[in-house]
What we know:
Layout: H1 29-38, H2 45-52, H3 58-71, E1 76-78, E2 81-83, E3 91-99, E4 105-109, E5 122-125, E6 140-145, E7 156-165, E8 171-176, E9 185-188, E10 196-198, E11 210-218, E12 226-235, H4 239-249, H5 258-266, E13 276-277, E14 284-287, E15 296-302, E16 312-319, H6 321-324, H7 330-338, E17 342-343, E18 348-349, H8 354-360, E19 368-378, E20 384-395, E21 398-401, H9 402-409, H10 421-442, E22 453-456, E23 462-466, H11 472-494, E24 501-503, H12 509-520, H13 534-544, H14 550-559, E25 565-567, H15 591-604, H16 619-649, E26 656-665, E27 668-673, E28 679-683, E29 692-695, E30 700-703, E31 708-711, E32 715-724, E33 729-734, E34 739-740, H17 743-753, E35 758-760
Parallel strand pairs: 5-7, 10-12, 13-20, 14-21
Antiparallel strand pairs: 1-2, 3-4, 3-6, 4-5, 6-7, 8-9, 8-11, 9-10, 11-12, 15-16, 16-19, 17-18, 19-20, 22-23, 24-25, 26-27, 26-32, 27-28, 29-30, 29-35, 30-31, 31-34, 32-33
Helix pairs in contact: 4-16, 10-11, 11-15, 12-14, 13-14
Keywords: Cytoplasm, Exonuclease, Hydrolase, Nuclease, RNA-binding
Catalytic activity: Exonucleolytic cleavage in the 3'- to 5'-direction to yield nucleoside 5'-phosphates
Main location: cytoplasm
Amino acid sequence: MNARRIAPPKGANRKPKPGAKTPGEFPSREDLLTFIADNPGKAGKREIARHFGIVGAARIQLKKMLKDLGEEGLVERRQKRLIRPGDLPPVFVVSLVARDPDGELLGEPVEWDDEAGSPPKVLVLTGRSNKMPQPGIGDRALVRLTEAEEHGEAQHTARVIKVLEKAQGAILGILRMRGPGKPPYLEPIDIKQRELDVDPRELNEAEDGDLVSVQVNRSGSYGTPRAAIVQRFGSMKSEKAVSEIALHSHGIPHVFPSAVEVEAEKAQPVTLGQREDWRQIPLLTIDPPDAKDHDDAVFAEPDEDPDNEGGHVVYVAIADVAYYVRPGSALDREAHLRGNSVYFPDRVIPMLPERISNDLCSLREKEDRPALAVRMVFDKHGARRGHTFHRVLMRSAAKLSYLQAQKAIEGVTDEKTETLVEGVLKPLWAAYACLKKARDAREPLELDLPERKIKLKPDGTVDHVYVPERLDAHKLIEEFMIQANVSAAETLERKKTPLLYRVHDASTPEKLQNLKDFLSTLNMKLPSAGGLRPSVFNGILAKVKDTPQAQLVNEVVLRSQAQAEYTPQNIGHFGLNLRRYAHFTSPIRRYADLIVHRGLIRALGLGNDGLPEGIEDKLEAIGAEISGAERRAMLAERDTIDRLIALWMTDRVGATFQGRIGGVVKSGLFIRLDDTGADGFIPASTIGIDYYRYDEGSHSLIGDKTGETYQLGDNVEVRLVEAAPFAGALRFEMLSRGRMGGKQVRASRAKAKGGSKASTSRKRITSRRGGSSAPSKSRKK
């Protein structure tokens, strides 16, 4: 007779919780790493000490262990919390990309560091609430990590907090006409989608080659679905069509719901009421000449206080958006969804409707406008002695461009500026000279990376690409805005009012090590111990200023930096070298600034439209959402410029250009042209006849036998082989010979050859230059 098996008591075979220690026993490195892994984004030094019962002097040993783990690249610090490299924060935004075999949604984090490899797959769990729309493929959602185990191909599991964007139903593409008797078809912009036959009766006046959006209206039993054109954007050569692609591909909302438009149209101009009257203060707006809205105005004067000899008073007035956009309103919900305005070469996709952004809140010349203003007092050394915030009615004395203001201060005036030089512009520049002393003493990170701009023709096509000159007028406004932002953060901290900080973390140990390896190839060093400050990076940049390596070193230093973001947890702003910083100066175009305005109104009793109670629990999620929206806008703006330049270059295929190597990867070289700033790629399989290895330390491709080296920053001559406007891509072939590997590069190569940093970039090929068996005559040594 078989004895019946009796189950053990519940929990009898349960393993002890990882990391659990007996009282008085200090945790090992493995215990710390396990706890950090089990609590992604939640494990700070305080939480670790509490979990393991570490008190008193033992905290010093814990601090040293955590520092060692960081220097070894085993953990990273993020907003006073520790995570493993490649881990996800507790709250983040995902793009829903597919479904698993069980039908569950899979997502990828919208923000992901490419250096950490491919983005992880996240199993996204949804609720059954009717209050929230159910997400689908193509949507974006704010999610929170759960403690569930890995599931199939998903490395993480998260639950939806909020659906941010629903995928658009329309499909974007190029209308192509076939021969007589054949239906036209759509060539989709998204290469993952199939071509679609278009109903000839539903062309909506679109022509061959136009960018259009279509809606699939019926599908037969056989053949491809048929579609109707719902909107025509015009020729693909126009900026509007190109920016439309960016809006579509990045899922950027750009059509205001009717409820939002109605609410905006009902808004009325503000009267003085309980506001302070600042209309006699000659505040100026100084912006780019093509600025669509004006949300900041400035004025300065010498401080008449005898105890502050040589000091200055600076006034910064910011458009009072909070008066018109109330918490919970349709305008507020839409601004929250958009997160920020998006700027293309010939148009703006505003965060708020034009009735608000370009009319009632824009600080127009000679018109009364509501503002939230700060009055700051500085001593003769540029140190801020105090500040006060005011809710005012102001009237801009003049609207100037940066160049117009700069020329006036240099003695070249026009009809508008000639009356402003003595009483307004000179005091502004005197105050800036004073503030610059404090800025120089603070030593923020001073990267010199010119930004390319596109000048368009009247028909929306590219005229030319240029790099605008950086003037003192730009720096003046920038420094005044920084000081206003710091003042806002300090006031809200002092009043213990919730806020979203603008934070910038220090570089991770892994990125610093990559920077050290690179600098060693230039006989330069980065300190290996101690906390690095921006001044250390500035010292490196100063050494290469006005040398051929200057641009290269600036870009590599930039790549070593963390990305700024919005969060209610303050970790300071590393790049600006500031302990506290919040965005206050652009509420027309950034939702974070509107949050700060509402906080000031609540903290200082400036009205009944301040930050609502209970917002504290939502700020972490709001910060994650608008940080993702900011990243999305940056990508859309960059993609549009790339596509416009690729369109512009299609007529120049076969031409040769001077440029430099702007990026090096295993698969090839990224090239940036000198005259236009256009970016393109050279596949490694088209370079030379050698085996090439990617050397991470020197940012180089190095020939295995010849030592021929192509390094980041090298000047080269290239030929344009292909321009792909839809992808915004250019492909070049190399005409210049690489440098024969120098001492430092060879040493780095030898080190990499024996380790993991070097990798074979391609197979050997028989032709020297992209299929041409003869070497080019224009190749350089």
